[in-house]
Write a structure and sequence with these properties.
This protein has 1 helix and 11 strands; from the N terminus they run βββββββββββα. The protein is mainly beta.
Length: 267
């Protein structure tokens, strides 16, 4: 299996935060790994794995699992039996979807699925309302399900490098989104996005748009014409603030801070 007799370093971390260095040989994991039932983090990136043994399910305390850069064609069944799993890296494999049992991962908060072959939005994700960050870049998606708002906890959604020809209208109902990345798609027109009250970052670069999307004044834009747009917006806001201050001086009152949050980049 895997890459013959080659070895790949892997690492594991227990409850005390002590890191252990092990080796995967020829796409095979060391049997001693499964005896460490208290593991919290397990990094198996680029280990040449085509499958993961059923013993993975015995790591009941695992919170972070990295399986990116392997040769997985399907999500291992044992992975769906990890009750504490919160951070999962599955990028750059050969995955076309997720099994129904994936919805059992109710503790999952951040999922990386970039660089796979996902052509339909995985239905199992709709059963994970606590998922906060979803990385689906460089896949084959062309549409999103109308029931996407079920994912009420989702704050960051990366959809760059997919096959969207139109802005997915369901995203207009995802008002809790803070970060939305639609780089490298085929979207020629964006609707008015001022309704996305929680949005702080929108990336739309390398789409055939003629002008920046219309967003709230607190949104940072990344894409063609974004710099000029934001500079003009800042100038307009400065002029507006100056005018309000001059009017306040005339009435003897001082305008209050509106409490707008500072922009923050992706976590």
């Amino acid at each position: 299996m895997g890459s013959g007799g080659s070895t790949c370093p892997i690492s594991a971390e227990g409850p005390a935060g002590v890191e252990q260095r092990l080796e995967a040989r020829g796409g095979q994991l060391p049997p001693a790994l499964w005896a460490q039932r208290g593991l919290r983090k397990l990094y198996l990136s680029g280990a040449g794995l085509r499958d993961v043994p059923a013993e993975l399910a015995s790591l009941r305390h695992l919170r972070t699992l990295a399986l990116d850069g392997n040769e997985l064609m399907e999500v291992p069944e044992a992975l769906c039996q990890l009750p504490c799993l919160a951070y999962l890296y599955l990028g750059r494999n050969g995955l076309q979807g997720l099994p129904p049992a994936f919805s059992h991962l109710q503790s999952l908060r951040c999922l990386w699925l970039e660089g796979n072959f996902v052509g339909r939005f995985p239905h199992a994700l709709l059963g994970l309302p606590g998922l906060r960050s979803l990385q689906l870049g460089d896949n084959r998606l062309a549409r999103l399900p109308s029931c996407l708002p079920r994912m009420a906890g989702l704050q960051g959604l990366w959809l760059y490098g997919n096959r969207f020809q139109h802005f997915p209208p369901v995203l207009l109902r995802m008002t809790q989104l803070r970060i939305l990345d639609l780089d490298r798609n085929r979207i020629a027109r964006f609707p008015d996005l001022q309704c996305l009250a929680g949005l702080s970052l929108l990336s739309y670069d390398h789409n055939p748009v003629r002008q920046p999307p219309c967003v709230a004044d607190t949104v940072r834009l990344v894409g063609s014409g974004a710099v000029e747009y934001m500079e003009a917006r800042e100038e307009r806001l400065r002029e507006q603030q100056q005018l309000e201050e001059e009017e306040a001086e005339g009435t003897g009152t001082i305008p209050r801070d509106d409490g707008s949050p500072l922009l923050q980049d992706a976590p």
